[in-house]
Amino acid sequence: MKKIINTVNAPAAIGPYSQANMANGILYISGQIPVDPTTGKLMEGIEKETHQVMKNLEAILTEAGMTFKNVVKATIFLKNMDDFAVMNDIYASYLDAESFPARETIQVSCLPKNVDIEISMIAHQD
């Protein structure tokens, strides 16, 4: 059975989708962009954007009773692959080196609201 996960501590969906769905112990988190959920404002610059995306993902994980240690897969979309190193360092700072998830990083031509980064994740309950 599917359970919709929703929190005010992450940005509301900007389309016909849920922040996340839990099904059979697996949490599927929709792509998060760098919107501050309290102000609704977009962060600017890859450093601030990456931190905000990770905070949004963390809020959804927390709402589902999980942490980044539960994440088994991440997909990162970057508008500019030149931002990879900066993004990668910030991304890694939120994770436990003992439990890095599988991941791919893809450069795309455009993202919602013209942001520089979007990340989606899949997590599993232990």
The quaternary state of the protein chains shown equals single chain
The helix content is 10-25%
Domain tally: 1
Average pLDDT taken over every residue: 97
Second rung of CATH, namely the architecture: 2-Layer Sandwich
Number of strands: 6
CATH H-level superfamily title = RutC-like
- Overall geometry comes to globular
Content of β-strand: 25-35%
What is the succession of H and E elements? EEEHEHEE
Question: Biggest sheet: strands, sense, closure?
Answer: 6 strands, mixed
Distance between the termini: 18 Å
Instruction: Supply Rg.
Output: 14 Å
Q: How many H/I helical runs?
A: 2
Low-confidence stretches: none
Q: Helix/strand-derived class?
A: alpha+beta
CATH classification, class level: Alpha Beta
CATH topology: 60s Ribosomal Protein L30, Chain: A
How do the strands of the widest beta sheet line up side by side? 1-2-3-6-4-5
Organism: Chryseobacterium taichungense
Family: Belongs to the RutC family.
Protein name: 2-iminobutanoate/2-iminopropanoate deaminase
GO molecular function: deaminase activity
